[in-house]
Amino acid sequence: DQQVKQNSPSLSVQEGRISILNCDYTNSMFDYFLWYKKYPAEGPTFLISISSIKDKNEDGRFTVFLNKSAKHLSLHIVPSQPGDSAVYFCAASARHTGKLIFGQGTTLQVKP
Amino acid sequence: DTGVSQNPRHKITKRGQNVTFRCDPISEHNRLYWYRQTLGQGPEFLTYFQNEAQLEKSRLLSDRFSAERPKGSFSTLEIQRTEQGDSAMYLCASSLASDGPLHFGNGTRLTVT
Question: Could you tell me if A70 lies within 8 Å of chain B, comparing CB atoms?
């Protein structure tokens, strides 16, 4: 039972353009959502999070949007840079547990 | 460096052997998590501790797996009688509280031959 799904295994974007990564979840108890970035041979690195009381959170080039009715969140990166090339994981938790459930990941390639 | 530290980085073992991994969390973090990641998948939750108490274990964690955090600081994950299906990246993470992001170490890659 995959509670968090990232349906696009890969995404290729030109440098300077917008990257949009998508994530869907099924568990209505989830109230805290995060995005992580992972480079090869390293652990996931926290990027940005959003609480279910908000629908948008922005940090520099990164913005996360949450649509609770659709149980969908997205990460926008603009402008995209070659250094953004990595695997991106979305994760969700019911906040009182602190336990994160991860999606399968989307590999982003930003071409110079 | 005050990040999460995991040792060893790589472990190759023969089927049937026991292995133990160590995780040193960020010092002020009271929550510690173990995850497992296989190729093409996201990290899968295994277990977590608040201080020295193990609060939850996943169904993925068979009785060959045991984790401890004896003094509420570092943690160990032991796998007994390893199987080839145990080959994966084992990730440790810590957090300050239940509502903060998890900070991950660089993992221990286990290969069972």
Answer: no
Q: How far apart are CA B73 and CA A71, in angstroms?
A: 37
Whether A99 sits inside 8 A of B97 (CB atoms) is no
Distance from the Cα of residue A43 to its chain's centroid: 16
pLDDT tens digits, one per residue of B30-79: 999 999 999 989 999 999 999 999 999 998 788 999 999 998 899 999 99
Nearest residue of chain A to residue B92 (CA atoms): A43
- Tokens 């799904």 correspond to A5
* Tens digits of residue pLDDT in A55-106: 999 999 999 999 999 999 999 999 999 999 999 999 999 877 778 999 999 9
Q: Which residues fall within 8 angstroms of residue A12, CB to CB, at 6 or more apart? A: A108, A109, A110, A111
> By the 8 A CB rule, do A14 and A111 touch?
yes
